[in-house]
Here is the input.
Amino acid sequence: MSTSRVTLPNQLLSNKQKLTFYTYPVKLMVKPGKNNYRQLYDEEIAILTSRGCSAEDWSLVLVKENFNPLSCSRTRFSGNIKLGVFEKTHTDASGVEFRSGISNATIHNCIIGDNVSVINVHEYLANYIIGDEVIIRNCGRISCDGISSFGNGTLISVLDESGGRSIRIFDRLSSHLAYIYCLFRHRRTTIEQIDKLVQRYASDVSSGMGYAGKGSVLINCGLVRNVRLGEYSRVEGAIKLEEGTLLGSEDAPVIIGHGVIMNNFIAGSGSVITDGVIAERCFVGQGCLLAKQFSATDSLFFANCQGFHGEAVSVFAGPFTVTHHKSTLLIAGMFSFMNAGSGTNQSNHLYKLGPLHHGIVERGSKTASGSYLLWPSHIGPFSLVAGNHKGNIDTSVFPFSYVMEKNGETFVHPALNLRSSGTYRDALKWPERDRRKGSDKADHIVYSLITPYTAGKMKAALEILQSLAESTHGTGEHQFNNFKIKSSSVRRGIELYEAGIKKYSGDIFIKRLSGKDFRNGKELSGLLECRISGGRGEWTDLAGLIAPVKRTKELLDKIESGRVTSALEIEEFFRNLHSDYDELEWSWVSGFIENNKGRKPADLSPEEILGILDEWQEAETTLHKLILEDARKEFSPSSMTGFGAGLGKKEKEEDFRAVRGDSESHPFIIRLEKELNEKISAARDIAARLRAVPK
Here is the structure.
């Protein structure tokens, strides 16, 4: 895709003040109105003066042809001014109407578009381009002081508070680029090149003029300094905003609410930041919610994160990271698809040379109330962490695990989350809770529960557990690295990981062949051919985007060699990588099947594929049964405690059903049953066609 640039040409700006910036892919800035301006007539100056207006030099005040001097009152103009036509009536949410125009304000060196309403600016509005239909009411000061990059290029000490992993934010930052920028410090030249690209971008968007895009609203604000507002952004009751960008649009406005204090920030489209939030040096991605006195410093929040009440310091919050509780502190950690329980805490203070340590809690994990982790630690994907872990632990090799503390020791129960209904419910709810609108999504997210990344981890974990099982017998405990695994957990983990891998392989075969017509071995082989070879080998989770390590290395090599010349080219690479995911995933599964069967899927006989489907059905049915059993615990007699208070058993049961329903009518359970039936039906259809293939 091409990248266009727009410069707002006008006589008012010096060469240093020319406003030049990228408009692709976000249409952020539009020149207010048409550019036909004239000087005021003497009669118009007289009317303005009679209405309490003044100017240092009326010859520097230019207006559009149909300008009505009656639309301005009690306003002082200075510097170069351009005024549009004010003839529209605005209506607020309460139904109150007020005309566009300017009153009770000091305006210095501004371009003001058509049908703008500026009422009661207590200090001044200076060095700003105000788009059409903008509303400014009861604000203290709105100004651009000197040349600003509006938060772009701000250096953030993420993960390592001492600055060892600092990155620069900019308004097209994705979670995937941030992941590489932050963690791939061993690629020194690559990181230097990325840093140069971001600094160049920040320089390109820098200007001596602030901007408020069409339809944006600023009401009851204190100080707004060096802030660029995208179209339809809404700022109401903010105390102070300094050095930042709001990437609003008509269908996904940024909303900044009461009591907010922010400086050196970027806020993505559709984000809401309100209720006394304090944020310093932060990137807030698309569709995020920060509210209820949440505070954050040197932190990144990507798509659909939520932060209420608690505190974040030097946090890399990948997509769907959620923290809702007052007593929760997230510090120097990398998270994604994570739900932090109340009182969740981590510590990077057991140091001698400064707060250098950080931790990683991989996607889909949860922390129980009061959990504690000592950094550095690394928790594997889709894990549950409970208790106080006062040693440095690394459970990254064991996905879908319970990480528990008992008598001061860490115990890992591998694979238990594969049978948890909560894990599957989370996987279903994430895409449904995506608050981003439109096709311009900065973060490219793979939502699947089992992917080549997690399947590869399950395969490696299975080999470790099988080795542990062979090394000792009985009912004792195994010491692995710096935690323990019970023998019973080893056996159970082997069973669940084997089922998970078979389920995943069969799922992908079914997806590959479902609804496809094949009448002979050649047509079947064609459907199972790999169109892309780059999916083999290890995969990684680039903070939401599941990708082959090989493809990631390709990007790093291109950046390092100078073949990538803009940050937008990196964005295009991630977009293409996401669109190729299904074929790359099939490439990985094909390699896995080839390693196990000795032949590529395209070379397998129908009978061998039927064997894979038989293994799939057994594994799918086993896991499905375990998940349903777990879900039905919510309807057990013990769950009725507190229902029907002071009443008999019958009334308690009726009260419970009135609130919770029953296991057979619950939407999640119905959905699970439906999806299983649909999969089995598809598998049976594929099996019937496989049996019909001529030998």
Notes: The chain has a mean pLDDT of 90.
